[in-house]
Fold:
Amino acid sequence: MVESMLRIRNLYWADARFQPTVPTEDTGGLTAMLATLRGQFSLALPAPRDTLILVRDPLGVNKLFFAIDEAGTVMAANYLVDLVSPGVPFETVYSVPAGHFVEIDPHGRTLSLRRYFHPDAAARREAPALDAAARRIREHLELWFARLAADLGRRRVCVSLSGGLDSSMVAALATKHFSSVTAYTYGYAGSDAPESEDVRSARRVADFLGVSLRFVPATPDEVLGVLEDALCYGQDWREFNVHCAIVNEIIARAIVRDAPPAGGEEPPLVLTGDLMNELLADYAPLSHAGREIYTLPRVGPERLRAALVQGLDAGDREVGVFGHHGIDVVQPYGLVVDQLLSLPAAFIGGEGAKQRLAREIAGELLPSFLFARTKARAQIGDATGPGGIVSTLQRAGCDARWLRRAFSRRLVVEDERSLDGFIRLGRYRFLREFQHGRNRRHGPEAD
Amino acid sequence: MVPKPTEIGEALERFLRSAFSIREGDSGFDWDAQLYDSGFVDSAGVVELIDFLESTFDVGLQDDDVFSDEFTTINGISAIVHQRLATRVSPDEATGTDAARVAPPDR
Structure:
């Protein structure tokens, strides 16, 4: 009844319990249980009366796509390519939205979609004192890093260190809780490019923490050489996600080159500083060559944060990209989602708000220069001038339209216009009710 | 008094033209035009659109609303907003009909 192509490992906890069993006897109990889970997971659970329950984690860190064929078989996958390659039409693939579960009765041909996690519910209207809020976040981060070390500490642990505040804080906590950590930092290596601000900052942070730093340079040819995998496993064609996916693809390849997987060995674990920017609405539009390439809605911080958090549903630039190399990713800020979302708009909208909060949270863990540093995007590497992946792709003609076409080719999208309905408001297309006659599988056996 | 769908549509059209620089003479733009597929509103713009509707009409839109097929045209959006507003007041106070089936004047 279910053909599972779920190959991304699930890493989730209910309080201190790692990967507890999720009961499916009744949906009330399931909803209550799911509300306690934190971490990342995509589950396909057999349920009573020959039904199937598909569950996706609260923020949508792991992706979960499905299609239902005419015989009533539900095909579930983390990667779109795993569905379309054997012949499932792209137009019949749907996603389980973040923080939801779908109960499917393929023979009774019914489907119900239910939400168990509401990001808005964590929003707090009254502002606590900054130091109290920061202390709470730090306490929870320490708790989660202790759990990560207890449950995953035997693995080879890497930190994706951009040189910015978020990844530096993760590197600092990882160094404190894990016995051995290697930091990886990407750097653009064009002939016209000096070492970027990001790389210089990453070196200083690594020195401060006493952690070994593996610098991963990438030439323009190498950037273009990973583009197809970035599109396919990053599961998105939009520039802001493709550009980040390229950075991660380059780092993932370096991690595998440094220590190829050996039989029986647990997979490497990469810790990243992702999600903080969404949870604190700490993004700004980015212009390049006179054009705004990463647009943001012109709305207040609270709504911007809601949109960015919802937007985590679509795009797989971290877990998906590392995952196809057999590498697990954990984004620790996603584990303190409740504490970060409870910060009111007054904390997240102001000039320098992130730096103030980070200083309070990190305290002695980080060198002071970091708190005064201007934010830079890893895919550009420098806050003051153009360079890096963005300009490489522009020079090669790989603009937004090109990326759409390339994604369509790779994911067997027959009508490129159908991409418009595939991601809307930051969410992949989802299904509310059974679609009769739309669940056919392409292939030799199809008419 | 709940605004009529045509009043919502007019306010929405003004907002869209202003926020997304849609010219008066754009022949592809009318109340049944697909706002997203036709490129009038991009993914960031949808968030601004929802922000406009919620703040202007003091209405809370749900996932069912914004991810529905109707939430893609001015007519459809006007109908959704009208329905949301009408269902929170007594039926007698609600006015207007289903905007999705009403052609706005002069269009």
